[in-house]
Amino acid sequence: MSTDREASVDAAAALLLAAITMRDLAAAMAPHVYAAMPDDIRHRVDTPDYTAAFDALPQDIKQAARRIVDTNPDIRRARRIDAEDHA
Known about the structure:
This protein has helices at residues 4-28, 31-36, 39-46, 49-55, 59-71, 73-85. By secondary structure, it is an all-alpha fold. Helix 1 runs antiparallel to helix 4 and helix 1 crosses helix 5 (59-71).
């Protein structure tokens, strides 16, 4: 059975992953692809709502969420591949 704290940490981890993903997507896009995006989607990529929402969380929730994201082998592997592609 999940506690409220566990649910909050899981949601925070998902929010952190969304923030990382949106940032990485924007950084990886060619300028012409970015410019061709529909305005509503470009706004979601441009606006740091995910990051701001994560930053507003209590410190202990953020730390627990970061541990989940930072220790997940699939996420670590994807981030390593992304870093290698941009090296």
